[in-house]
Amino acid sequence: MPKPPFPWRGWVAAGVVLAILVWSAQGTGASLKAFAEGVPQMLAYFQKLSPSHKPWPLDYLPEIKDRLLETVKISFAATVIGAALALPFVMVATRPLAANGFVYTLGRGFLNLIRTIPDLVLANILVAGFGLGPLPGLLALIIFTFGVVTKLLADTIETVDAGPMEAIAAAGGTRLQRAVFAIFPQIAPDYIAYSLYALEINVRVAAVLGLVGAGGIGQILYRDINFFMYSRVGMIIAATFVVVFLIDSTSSWLRSKLV
Amino acid sequence: MSAIEQANRFTRPSRTGGETARLVIYLVLSLAVLAWAFSGLEVSRERVLRGLPQMASLFKEMFFPPDWSYTPKVLTGLRESLQIAALGTAIAAVLALPFGALAARNLIPLRGVPFVGKTLLNMIRTFPELVLALVFIKALGPGPFAGVLAVGFHSIGMIGKLYAERIETVDKNALEALAAAGASPLEVFRYGVVPEVLPDFLSFALYRFDLNVRAATVLGLVGAGGIGTLIQFQINNDWPKVGTILVGIIITVGLVDFISAKFRSRLA
User: Is residue B199 included in any domain, yes or no?
Assistant: First the structure.
């Protein structure tokens, strides 16, 4: 007899989930009615953004290009720097390389702590310290990239073949030598794949950094949307979509070739 | 030859020129990207150096000590963020089902359909939640409902892709056996695909819930509800309160990550 797909525990879990969802719907004012009423409003809004409503102002393109370029530059720079910082730090955040259990716990703890801070919250606070502009956005994304890449790398190192490392340790190699000669060559493709993965997230975040004053295309999107410049908003959204989609597809294609 | 070189030679005989060349290419490429990225970017060393002491004093103001009297408000904000994330994830987990099925190569015999399905999912993923939230706010008015829709729509992209990839690994023989026994395509799906993929689907939704809790903490920065509303309110205004908010976010996100990982390891 095959196992029934829904044992009783499944029903209990489904009931709990359903209760949570009803509670959430009440708390957020979400309902099918609200949605049904919202659909025509949304369609009307999208209609205003489209070039068929009013032709898009093409003389606005240079400004969009400059701001999008800033978004792309912030995300690329943050990815390279954040991923580079991950390499030395991973030595204290992964079991095979950490000096002892205490260092490992501390390293992992620090890593988990910075990974819980949402990127835009971080950017928002950094804006208060470093002033408006791309600098706080760049710093926020560096910290975010560092967290993601280190975490993934640390997890990967804990699963790699320990043979080469033990051989070097037996021959009297230091921890650094073990890392550089036994571990890093094994994880090089993963490292690049994780960096690309971080890049894909970074481009999206960099597109909205401007909402908190941290540079990039989000800055003019926020301004134009609040001043009801519908055609400009439509253009910005379309241009952002194209750039993010291109970088995202190229990067995930590269990743699929790597691993 | 040193002992290390010997050990290295013994375990990794293939330290060839190709590997070194790849390393050099990677380094050169990284430096080129950096040089390009920093050209024309308004980032200067003076600003970094000026900002650092400022950050240090903000840090001190926020956490030494945080304003604990603000805790009840923070809890309300966090509750709303969790509600946005839960509802958004659930909506996406359901709406992603048809997308996932259409994008799976082994379910749809027509070759073009899975490709279109996957492209559609990638396109959905492309819009950042906050851009969606902004648009929904303008169309529907501010509040958590706009946040729910933004999270729900954006999450379809990733969940749908994970669904499709999982369906593609379903054992083909079992499906053919069911079909041979006279099951309709819908029955094949119900009895051949669903029981096998369900635990993994739940696991994907839980994973996405983790990400959505993070997303739901920042939605309020643009007026789409949750704890971000309080951040927007108190930043540059009352830093000890911002400290309390941050402590709340860190504990909540950490706990959700932990619990979700526990559940997921049991589902696997």
Answer: yes
Taking only the tens place, the pLDDT of each residue in B219-248 is 999 999 999 999 999 998 899 999 999 999
Q: Classify residue B56: in a domain, yes or no.
A: no
Nearest to B148 among A28, A205, A241 (CB): A28
End-to-end Cα spacing for chain B: 48
Nearest C-alpha neighbor of B229 from the set B240, B251, B214, B245? B245
Structural domain range at position B122:
70-267
* Residue from the list B47, B122, B257 with its beta carbon closest to the beta carbon of A130: B47
**Residue located via tokens 């280190």:** A150
**Ordered DSSP codes for B52-121:** HHHHHHHHHHHHSS--GGGHHHHHHHHHHHHHHHHHHHHHHHHHHHHHHHHH-TTT--SSHHHHHHHHHH
**How many degrees, rounded to 5, is the angle at CA A222 between CA B237 and CA A215?**
75
Pick the closest to residue B234 from B224, B213, B220, B252 (CA basis): B220
Residue A247 has pLDDT above 50, yes or no: yes
Q: Do A73 and B36 touch (CB under 8 A)?
A: yes
| Architecture of domain A58-258 in this structure | Orthogonal Bundle (1.10)
Whether B207 and B155 have beta carbons less than 8 Å apart is answered as no
For chain A, the structural domain boundaries read 58-258
